[in-house]
Amino acid sequence: MGAMQTTLQQVTPELRQWIVSQAQAGHQPDAVLAAMKASGWQEDVAIQAMEDTLTGFLAEQAKSAGLPPPVPVPEPDVAQSPVWLDGGDRRVQVLLSMRNPRVIVFGGLLTDEECDALIEFARPRLVRSETVQMDTGGSEVNIARTSSGMFFQREENPVCARIERRIAKLVNWPLENGEGLQVLHYTPGAEYQPHHDYFDPAKSGTPSIVARGGQRVGTVVMYLNSPEKGGGTVFPDVALEVSPVKGNAVFFSYDRPHPVTKTLHGGTPVIAGEKWVATKWLREGRFV
Ligand code: PD2
Ligand code: ZN
User: Fold this and answer.
1) With a cut of 50, which residues of the chain have pLDDT below it?
2) Which ligand is nearest to the CA of 185?
3) Which residues lie with the beta carbon below 6 Å from any ligand 1 atom?
4) Of 29, 153, 203, 223, which is least packed with CB atoms within 10 Å of its CB?
5) What homologous superfamily is domain 84-283 in, according to CATH?
6) Helix (H) or strand (E) holding 217
């Protein structure tokens, strides 16, 4: 009898329409499921119908709003709210976790010695920072970013390699998909005005950039020292500011190159002291 019922429970367009209207009216999934069960739907059939209907509906909506489709992103194992995460060779603290935008603040991602080593390797190689010139895919000095910086090659030295392995383990993303570490140095007054780290799909230079490993889908900004005042990392869409504490880091991910990810972020002006960070950008695919 049960099997007979399953075959008879057809998910009609009318039912799909009803499920969408319930969601749009703000009814919680539990309540919608209860209503379906009360009118004779088997629980498993009802759950499947709700999932399929709402997933399809959201995808259609996103497409008609002109949004690029979402892609998989790096994601630490925070589903069970752990205080510590396994970085392979080191335990790392979870100090804050936000779902939308996906932002996670790590405590003690780097040791003091690793921070100091990165600064000393980078110092003689610093040049006035350039940001990617979006129209041509080349580089230019950008006044929004008044710092100096340099790039390491991936696994350029044992300290970089160790940190890269730790990040890969922590955010569950292949080491090969990471760009080399970038170190930035800010003196008082220097800042990094709010921006997105993904490449703007509307710009003509983007195809040549994303040919090398796809879009950026995640960022880890690591604080290599603690400025006296200022120099936090801000997310203006959600009014969040992360303090730049030596050894800590802020991770954020973006599943499509669009502001709907709410990952607009910037480095606030350094008010007293100096600021050093190392940034790791994570691509969709293997970065060569
Ligand atoms: O130094 C920072 O806080 C910062 C802020 C925004 C770094 C970056 N973006 C970056 O390197 O992308
Ligand atoms: Zn950035």
Assistant:
1) 1-6, 140-141, 143
2) 1
3) 184, 192, 197, 219, 221, 233, 265-267, 277, 279
4) 153
5) q2cbj1_9rhob like domain (2.60.120.620)
6) strand 216-223
